[in-house]
């Protein structure tokens, strides 16, 4: 028989204190009845003897010490799951906000997840196609990987996230089931509407599950949203054998919500005022990506975070970099030159790409081509620095070629349209076309056999294009 507690002992922001509690558990869900009509949910975040501190999801407005009844449910927060969640839109607690009926299912899962035995993990292989050259070629996303996007305020990370959702696939030859779980935390109404409208207009919404926590929603709900989204992703991946891509935006909002709640609890702050357990909380979320041996599905994560003041040493990107397998960095100077997506190639990397590309996965030349593009673009920075001192006219002929290569690389390879979906072969061929601007002897990161097969000088490429155009014209005349 459930015990109902009358009244509260203390209210402090989103937290309340309840005394005289028996048999309470950490993370247990609590039901409140305010003025005998309004229902609210909370969870126990701290227990001391017979005293429980409870976070209220919907906020403590209209609650007082005397008008509230409290009942312990005896279980942690759970979310109802079925394959019907694909194509649906939910709030941060997993409740539908798309005007359709709630999910009716006997399957309920604890949003905190279950510990995954490291011995059951399988090493990530195979890539996920995004259609974005700078990602597919240079920082390839591998199934089961966690690859964050480091952005900044005002940079187009929302547009990039929407483009990835629309274009992501398992590759042209795959017939495996693929889905996307998209979770937004602390976003404005116009941003949420942008995502919803974009997914519907592109036809991607049928295989996307959205969890939206808006900026005016309670702060505490923001802490639950990524857990609910990852629980849904794990269900689809490990029980329905789907390959799921999870996009979490913005992890900075999640961390700031954690700082606000920690401050309300009176905890001693750590770096920049964030709680000392920020690392473990982020790791708890990020480590829910992966592949389980014997299961045909996978969970891949792309967390997006905005770096305060574009500071990559800030605690949030700093700790994220320790946990994840690489990062994609957006650059403000590229954005100011109207390059989209403004991906800064040199500080970006994918630590798992070497095992998911090459012959049998993408193409035999992929790894060598990526290494050479990185190396050549690094030379561009040196040539630009020298040109800023002595002037471009005083540069050597080779340095001038590197400058030309750098401009073409940024404007043709990195830059692409917001609806442009390049295949892997188009991306790799474009990379070779750019390398043709450099002398063969400068391409020292590529195996000789691959160089013989794929490298052509600019003059050879031009003759090849002209020959193709003439053949097409003759065929049309015939």
Automatic annotation (TrEMBL):
Residues 355-455 form the ATP synthase A/B type C-terminal domain. Keywords: ATP synthesis, Hydrogen ion transport, Ion transport, Transport. GO terms for molecular function: ATP binding; proton-transporting ATP synthase activity, rotational mechanism; proton-transporting ATPase activity, rotational mechanism. Pfam families: ATP-synt_ab, ATP-synt_ab_N, ATP-synt_VA_C. GO terms for biological process: proton motive force-driven plasma membrane ATP synthesis. Residues 131-350 form the ATPase F1/V1/A1 complex alpha/beta subunit nucleotide-binding domain. It comes from the Bacteria. The keyword DNA-binding does not apply. Residues 9-64 form the ATPase F1/V1/A1 complex alpha/beta subunit N-terminal domain. Belongs to the ATPase alpha/beta chains family. Produces ATP from ADP in the presence of a proton gradient across the membrane. The V-type beta chain is a regulatory subunit. This is V-type ATP synthase beta chain. It comes from [Clostridium] polysaccharolyticum. The gene is atpB.
